[in-house]
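Example 3.2
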Amino acid sequence: MGMRKIIPSNSVGFKKAFSSSSSAVPGKLSHSNPKSFVPNLHSLHQFLTQQRKSGAITLDEALHFFDYMIRMLSPPPVSSFNHLLGALAKMQQHDHVISFFQRLNSVGVFPDIRTLNILLNCCCKMGLASDGFLVLGKMLRGGYSPTSTTFNTLIKGLCMDDKIGEATRLFKNMSVFGCQPDAVNYGSIIDGLCKHEMVEKAKQLFSQMKSRGISPDVVVYTSLLQGCCFMGNLEEAKSLFIEMVDEGVQPNVVTFTVLIDGLCKQQRLQEANELLDLMFQRGRHPDTVTYNTLIDGLCNQGRMEEANRVIGLMIQGGKHTNTRTYNTLIDALCKCGRMEEANRIIGLMIQRGKHPDVVTYNTLIDALCKDGRLDKANRLLHLMILRNKHPNMVTYNILINALCKQGRLEDADGLLDFFIQRGQHPNVVTYSTLIDALCKEGRMEEANRLLNFMTERGQHLDTVTYGTLVNAFCKEGRMEEANAMFELTIQRGQLPNTVIYNTMIDGLCKNGQLEKASDLLKEMESGCFPDVVTFNTFISFFCQKNETSKVVEFVLKMKQKNMSPDTMTLYIVLKLLSNLKDERRQELIDELPTFPVREPPCE
C-alpha cells in the first residue's frame, strides 16, 4: 500500500526527464526496418495516425519509428511523436514513454498538452501519482491550462495509490486552475471515496454534483451503489437503483452485478435471483463476473448443487467459465468435507480447458490439513511445484500452521527453511504462528528470540500475537516478563485489547498483585472497556479471599455498567454462597443486586 514502484533500469530517471540540459542521445536501436518507407512528414503523420487508430503497430515498430524520427534532420512535429507515445502507453510500455520524453527534450522537440497528459497517465499507471505533480508543474510553466482529463488522470492515480486525501484536495482545487469538475471528475473521486469506505463524503459530492446541474451517469451511480453495498446499506442501494432508472440512466451489467453481489453477501438470494430476471428483461445479459457472484452466494449458503447447475447454465448460454468459477465451488465443497466431489469438479474443470491455479491448490491443501492428512497435503505441495504452479506465502502458512497444531515444530522449521530457499519471505502470519506454537510448548526463550529476530528485520507482530506472549508468561507466573511484553505492545504502536488486559489482570490476581491489577482496571476503563471476564476475575479473587463485601461491590459495578452476569459469574457466586453459614448466606443474597431476566433468542 503506497509502495513506490521503481522505473525499470532501461528507462531514464523520472525527474531527469524534465532536465532540458540533458544531451545524451542513445545509440542506434537494433530494431527491424519500418514496414514501409515513409517519403515525407505528411505521409509519416498520416501513417502513424492510421497505425495508432488501428492498434496494429508493434512495440518493435514503435521503437524503430521513434528512433528514425528523432534522427531526421528536421524532426516531425510533436503531434507525430504523440501518436507513438500514445501507442506505447496503450501497450502498457510506460517506462519507454518516460524515457522517450527525455529524448524529445534532447533534440529540441517540446511537448504540448497532449504529450504531458500521456506522460501523466503513465506516471499514474506506474504508481507514481505524486510525481505526476511535476508534470502538472511543467504544464503550468509551459503556459498550458490543465484540462479535466489532466485532473481526472491525477485524481484516479492518487486514489489508486491510496492517497485519497490528496485526491480530494486536488478535486476541490480544480477551479483554482480555471477548470470546473465535470461528470467524469465527479465519477472518479466518488469511486475513490467509496473504495476507501468514505461513502458519506461520496454521497455529499453526489448531491453537490446534482445541485450544480451535472447529471450523474451510469458510472457514478454504480460507484455509489457499490459503496452502499460494501457498507451493508442494501436498502439505500436499492433506492439509489430505483432513482437511477427513474432519471433515465440505464443500469449496465456492472450495476446489476454490484447489487446482486450486495444481496448475496447478505444472504438475500431470492432477491438476487429476481434482480437477475430483471436484468434479462432489460436486455442486459449476465457476464462471467455476474455468474461467479451468484455462485459465490449459493456456495456461502451451502447450496452447492444449485451452484453447479448455474455453472451448467453458463456453459449452455455460451458464457466462459474461468478458474475463479470452479475455485468458488471447490472451496465450498472442501469446507463441507466433500473432498471427493471437490476432486470431481477439478477433473471437470480440466476437461473444460481450465487449469487449477495456486488458489485451487491452496484450497485443497488447507482442506487436507484441517482433516489431519498432512502427508497428503505435503505430496500435493510437491505436485504443485512439479506442475510449475508456484506456492505463495498462503500455501506455506497453511502447512506451517497445520504442522504447529500437531506439535511438529521441527518439521515446520524445516518447511520454513525450504520456502526461504525458494525465494519466499516469511510474513507476520508465519512468525505469529511459530511464536504461538512455541508459547504453547512453553519454549518462551525461543519465542522471544524469534520476536527479536522479527524486530531486527523491521517486522512487527499484531496485537493477537503479543497477547499470546503475554498469556504464556502469565501462565508460567513470570509476571515481570509479562508486564515487559505488555509495555512493549504499547511501545510498538499496538493498543492492548480487552483480551490482553484480562490476561494481565488474571495473572496479577493469581500472583497476589491486586493493587497492580486494580491499576490496570482503571487504565482499561479510560479506553478499552472491561467485559464480564474482567469482573469475573476480580469476583473470583475476592471469593477465594472470602471478602464478601468486595464481591458485592464488583457485582454492583457490573449492574451499573448494564453488564449481565454469565454462567461463570453465577458459578463463582454460588460456590461462595455454599461455603457460608445460613445466616451470612442470606445476608449476602439480600446484598446482591438483581438483574433483568433475558429473553431467550427467537428460533
